[in-house]
Amino acid sequence: MTVSTTTTLTSGRALVHPALQDAVSRLDDRTRRVAGYHLGWLDQGGRPVDGPEGKALRPVLALLSAQAAGASVEVGLPGAVAVELVHNFSLLHDDVMDGDAERRHRRTVWSVWGESTAILAGDALLSLAHEVILESPSPQAAQASRLLATATRELVRGQVEDLAFETRSRVTVSECIDMAAGKTGALLAASAAIGAVLAAAEEPVIEALSTYGGQLGIAFQLVDDLLGIWGHPVTTGKPVHSDLRSRKKTLPIAYATEHGGAVGRELLAWLAEPQRADDEARLSQGAELVERGGGRAWAQQEAERRLALALKAIQAVDLPDQVTDELISLGNFVVGRDA
Predict the structure, then answer these.
(1) Following DSSP, what letter does each residue of 131-200 receive, concatenated?
(2) By Cβ atoms counted within 10 A, which residue in 40, 56, 61, 120 is the most buried?
(3) In angstroms, rounded to a whole number, what is the distance separating the alpha carbons of residues 30 and 28?
């Protein structure tokens, strides 16, 4: 059966959007305006706009996981709203830490209102996420909140490691994978399981969905890292070679420095040179070294391998055929995306 990923994401976003707006409306006026701007609902003056929104991958996974347990999407809706709030908490903080002045082709919150405002807005969204999940009528609401809290702790661990990598001359592939499992995989794993938790699914189903989400998260990060070097600015919303500009130790770079032999050593020397206003020729040289060192090909192959592991997990349990088809389609979308 052919499933349209666009239809899945669009219909999921349409269901989650009003509930997400309702949750954000609880915030104080200033924080609500800042959050609304970040989420693409408002302009800088607080006026409603049809701004760019995210892919809604995490909330859609939460809705599908409720259906995987034989429940309605409404059962998974509090989980869908909660994971989207946590995701945006992390984005607000990430933009501050990375110094990114643009996201989704708009100025980031910190670049408009300052770092303190961005941090506080992120904190508000994180607190709101647990309010929403604990208000669920499901008897498993506390279990779902614990799942989300654990995932957030892992997300923060991954971010801590990512920042620590910036002060090191090199990192290993295994260290990068472990970092990605926390920074990206943990919340996707929670997203893929939280609806099933709220629906009181059997443990093997919850575990399979969590494994699917965790492996998909690593695949997602691998693709993100490829786009961070070779992505097109029109689709990514970031400058070309953005990760090379900031000397981030991403997965393709880690592979090339660890396994690229002489080319890897040349790349390490390139990375160690003092940062300055790099011109495009120099950045292209860095990208070429990563590619010659095998980083680009490996990252694409590893993303596909992680997707295969994700699909194997959900195919090992008895899920409704429609849900399985949509999870497969979403996985292929993650690995094949260009933004």
Answers:
(1) HHHHTSSSTTHHHHHHHHHHHHHHHHHHHHHHHHHTTSS---HHHHHHHHIIIIIHHHHHHHHHHHHHTT
(2) 61
(3) 6
- Own/partner long-range contacts of 168-173 (Cβ < 8 Å, ≥24 apart): 168/249, 169/268, 169/271, 169/272, 170/249, 170/254, 170/257, 170/258, 170/268, 171/249, 171/254, 172/254, 172/258, 173/251, 173/254, 173/255, 173/258, 173/259
What letter would DSSP give residue 317? S
Q: Which residues pair with 106 in a beta bridge?
A: 103
Q: Which helix (H) or strand (E) holds 208?
A: helix 203-230
Closest CA to 71 of 200, 224, 241: 200
Residue type, 237: G
Taken in order 40, 113, 33, 44, the sign of the CA dihedral is negative
Residue-wise pLDDT for 19-77, tens only, equals 999 999 999 999 999 999 999 999 999 999 987 777 899 999 999 999 999 999 999 99
CATH number, domain at 175? 1.10.600.10
Rounded-to-integer distance, Cα 80 and Cα 192, Å: 10
**How far is 300 from 88, CA to CA, in rounded Å?**
26
User: Encoding tokens for residue 190?
Assistant: 């929670």
Q: What length is written for the chain? A: 339
Q: Which distant-in-sequence residues (6+ apart) come within 8 Å of 307 by Cβ?
A: 215, 216, 219, 331, 332, 334, 335
Number of domains in the chain: 1
Spatial CA neighbour of 248 closest among 224, 266, 265, 232:
224
User: Which residue has tokens 């399981």?
Assistant: 193
pLDDT exceeds cutoff 80 at 151: yes
Place of tokens 């600015």: 233
Q: What 3-state DSSP class applies to 211?
A: helix
Q: What is the residue range of 84's domain?
A: 5-336
